[in-house]
Write a structure and sequence with these properties.
The chain is α/β, with parallel strands linked by helices. It is about 40% helix and about 15% strand. Helix 3 links the parallel strand 5 and strand 6.
Length: about 230
Amino acid sequence: MGEVLLEVTVLHQRDVPGACEGGADRLHLVAGSPDDPTSPEPALVSAVARASDVPVFVLLRLNDSWTTTGGELARLLGLAHDYLGAGAAGLSWGFLDSRLEVDTEVCAHLAERLPGVPWTFHEAFDHVLEPGRSWQQVLDLPGLVGVRSAGSPRGMGVGGEDLLATAQSDPDVARLLMAGGGLLAEDVPWLLRAGVRQFHLDLQARPGATYKSYVDAGHVRSWRRLLDDSLQRI
């Protein structure tokens, strides 16, 4: 794995060759609509993990909100164990409470019941009411290796400047931040200078910027080169 981690969203095993051949360091597997994703079936996790030569992180989410219930929590833990047994290297989750703050109780509960399992906080983070407070809430969550954020639910075109300022002001945030959600090539050098070393691709990895296309090795490779070349220039 290079000094800059590149994660790519995949929907099925047909996306795996393009992501891996293009230089992805990690895959993020989701099901359902990519714009409102949910947890995949364990059989799909197994197929993707077998086809991939890089780690696969799998989404834990059972409904179309950013909250969960006590009943769902048991199901999520069961799914998590199924995914890990099927070959997943890590997981991705992120839950908010009714006040649109990070639900640290739920997130910590999952992490504590899955000791040693790395996980990322997904795009739910961009829906919090107070990002500054939320960053402080997640920094000490056990097992957390990345927080995917664009600085706004509307993407980096809207939230990029605030996100960059936050990363510049706090090295702990920069260490955990995985920039994603409308990421543009011109964002990369600034984020790298701020200390960000994790980046996420979704539509950028697909021809025509549509989920109707499979992940393309050439598209991923262009981002791989951009990240590596930009890091060398810092």
